[in-house]
Backbone:
């Protein structure tokens, strides 16, 4: 059973963009199927998911930004769209770095993707597609951008706004977790170095003590030998 079922609501009408969105939906559904089956997602499988997401982000974002630039979409939308792309990449990197500290990393990644799919495909990319279509029909970029305030009904706008807030919250939590994990790794590394230096110092001290004891033992042997020779001398007629 697919977590996300592709339908016309996901379509932007831009063939390349829709094809890339379908790939992301398939990746999300693959992970969702594993979770629905209550399977323990292996590190190898999770790495494969991250690789697919990295490929998606690199290609999809480049294609979208090139399309918007070539069409001459309003700078305000272009910059906001780029910022969201950058946020996705940052969050993906954060999730990758902090996965070892997560109790259920696969569920966290799936939740992140579900929020991204909703906000990005149903919200931002639909807005992009509508503006590009209006520009191609002869509208100015600013007019196409301004018309977006009327393009989405109030109920849908409220829902998308709530989902965007949720996505932002999840992103912030993931970023904080990644930073905490990095801080922990740094403290562990520092403590490991301190222990290594302490062990090295202890080893040197033990070596010095061993050498000192050897010298004391040698001196005792020499003293004992001297006492024996003195005693022999006293016994001699």
Residues:
């Amino acid at each position: 059973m697919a977590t996300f079922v592709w339908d016309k609501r996901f379509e932007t009408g831009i063939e390349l963009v829709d094809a890339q969105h379908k790939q992301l939906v398939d990746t999300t559904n693959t992970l969702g199927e594993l979770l629905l089956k209550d399977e323990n997602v292996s590190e190898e499988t999770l790495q494969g998911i991250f690789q697919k997401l990295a490929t998606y982000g690199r290609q999809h974002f480049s294609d979208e930004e090139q399309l918007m630039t070539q069409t001459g979409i309003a700078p305000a939308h272009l910059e906001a769209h780029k910022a969201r792309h950058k946020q996705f990449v940052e969050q993906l990197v954060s999730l990758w770095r902090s996965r070892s500290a997560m109790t259920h990393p696969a569920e966290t990644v799936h939740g992140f993707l579900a929020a991204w799919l909703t906000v990005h495909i149903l919200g931002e990319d639909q807005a992009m597609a509508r503006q590009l279509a209006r520009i191609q029909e002869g509208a100015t970029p600013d007019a196409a951008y301004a018309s977006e305030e009327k393009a989405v009904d109030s109920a849908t706008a409220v829902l998308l706004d709530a989902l965007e807030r949720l996505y932002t919250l999840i992103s912030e939590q993931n970023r904080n977790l990644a930073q905490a994990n990095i801080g922990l790794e740094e403290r562990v590394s520092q403590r490991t170095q301190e222990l290594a230096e302490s062990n090295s110092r202890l080893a040197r001290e033990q070596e010095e003590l061993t050498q000192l004891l050897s010298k004391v033992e040698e001196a005792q042997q020499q003293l004992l030998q001297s006492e024996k020779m003195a005693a022999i001398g006293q016994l001699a007629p």
About this structure: The mean pLDDT is 80. The domain at 8-190 is CATH 1.20.120.50 (Four Helix Bundle (Hemerythrin (Met), subunit A)). The chain has one domain: 8-190.
